[in-house]
Amino acid sequence: MAVKFRILDKDVNQHSIVVRYYTDILSEDSLATSFVVDSDGNTIIDRGPDGTPKRCQTDYSINIWDVSATQPGANTDIIFQQINDSAPYDWFDLKEQIVDANVDTDMFVVDSLIGQVREAVRPIRLEPIIANANANANISESEIEQLIQRIINNTAPETSG
Fold first, then answer.
1. What totals of helices (H) and strands (E) does the chain contain, helices first?
2. Interval 133-151: pLDDT, tens
3. Contacts 24+ apart (CB under 8 A), 48-53
């Protein structure tokens, strides 16, 4: 699956851009969310001056955190990397399976789960664990094993004191 994108707009006040993602199977038209109904009751996709839909499900607002990446003469690779990394690859994979008649996506197992109340468990953020491991270059095999077990069991690191 090849995910494509276009930058649609920028918002200087938010230091962000709006990016549209689409694929060959899930075209901009199939992802359109902005419609107009004509006098005959026909649904027509509301299009911009360039002929593309005005709004799509995959129009994402992305903050450009690195201000230097948007200065005159800056290398645009940083922006394109952030756009690439923000692409909804898993979502497109799922949506392409949903439109594939050969894939059963009826979700029968969910029927028995509807209405159940459960308590969410906050996932472990790996960044602090990795930063701590990087700060301590002499990490032992035992400590590595403990980190792996914490990740597998989704438990928080032990705190001292």
1. 4, 5
2. 666 667 778 878 887 888 7
3. 52/28, 53/28, 53/29
